[in-house]
# Entry
Amino acid sequence: MRAALSALTNIAVAVGYGLLLAAAMLVAGRSVNWRSGLVWGGALYLAVVLAPAIGLQPVPPGVETGELAGRQVWWIATALCTAGGLAMMLLPRGKTRLYWALAGVALIVAPQLIGAPVGAPEGTAPPDLRRHFAWMVLLTTLPPFLLTGILLGALLARNRQAA
# Structure
């Protein structure tokens, strides 16, 4: 039962991220294809997985590293700041592009400078297991984000050609 609920939750989260990614691609107003979709998927991965993991390492179930509410707020703020910063760096065109890019870098770095509210890891998992778990989370979540971007880019390109 637990595995089935975990799978269902993962699918729901993936669909949610896919919808957010599709909305961002459409709002950006740029032409898309599978290659640009790959970049969009990578940007989503950076925003919601990699950037938060810099300050808030993924931990196995049963390991606590601080107050949950504080960690959640920091994670959301980091994901939003990273997504906004990437948009500021990559989307503007024209003479002010450099200024937007610098502001984007500052926005991405800000949550990392503030730091995540973490404490000493509490739980029975040894440090080697926690480190292995963190690497596995980071490595196994990358392909689905990239594949989502590729598929969305291809579908949106096909939809625009048909219209």
